[in-house]
Amino acid sequence: MKNRIKKFRQVFTQVLVVAAVLTLSNVVFAQGPIFTGDASNLSNIIRESLKLMAIVLFCLGAVGVAWAIYNKMTGKEWGNQAFGSLLAFAFGTIVAVFWQLAQGRAVGVDTNF
Fold first, then answer.
1. Per the count of CB atoms within 10 A, which of 34, 37, 46, 65 is most buried?
2. How far apart are CA 20 and CA 2, in angstroms?
3. What is the pTM of this model?
4. Are both 77 and 47 inside the same structural domain?
């Protein structure tokens, strides 16, 4: 029991030191507040986060398709991966539409196939 308490104190001290360094270094190296009175800064943050989210979702969809194909080829369960990749592509499309709207562009659907 004494060894556990001693080990806990050592780990807690190390975690406390790392947390203090991270907390204080963020304050020292900050380049200014994110949420200022300037609305363009906040809108840029939202636009870029939407773009990043759409990219990540499309990449996850592609990985899900590859995973489903691999599982199908090896005779394993593949439906869940295919359904998850379909959902990732669908939600990525929705996020991409919101990103277009945030850019101030009109979203049109071309029906001339």
1. 65
2. 27
3. 0.57
4. yes
